[in-house]
Amino acid sequence: MPDDYGDLTRELTDLPNNVCGILHGHRDAGPVASRFERLGWRVGSSSWHGYEVGTTWCEVELELAEGPDVLLNGVVDPSRFDDLATVLTRCGAGTYRLELYDEDGGLLREMRV
User: Fold this and answer.
1) 36 by DSSP, 3-state: which?
2) What is the pLDDT along the chain (113 residues), one digit of tens a residue?
3) 64 near 50, Cβ under 8 Å?
4) What pTM value is reported for the model?
C-alpha cells in the first residue's frame, strides 16, 4: 500500500476530527512517531511529549496518555480508515483501538486489534 506523501488534502482540512484511538503499551509517543516517519509520513513535535504525523489522507496527533498508552486523534479520509489500521500494524503498534466518526460525531466504525 503506497502512501501519498505531502500535506493533508484541502477537502480533509475542512473536516472536524473524525478518528481517535489508543495504542496500548507505549510509554512514549516518540518511537511511534519515528516509525511513521520511516514509512514516509510527515512528523513534527506538537507539544513536550506529543507529535503530529500526517500524509495526504490522514493527519493525527500522538500524545502520551495516563499509564502506558499513546492517544491518537485527528482526521482520516473515511475511505482510508482500514489503511490507517494497516499503517499502525506496519508501525508495530501492537494492540490498539480505533474509532471513526461522522461529521456529526456519530460513531461509524470501531476496530480493536
Assistant:
1) helix
2) 345 656 788 888 888 899 999 999 888 899 999 999 999 999 998 888 899 999 999 999 999 888 789 999 999 999 999 999 999 998 888 899 999 999 999 999 999 99
3) yes
4) 0.87
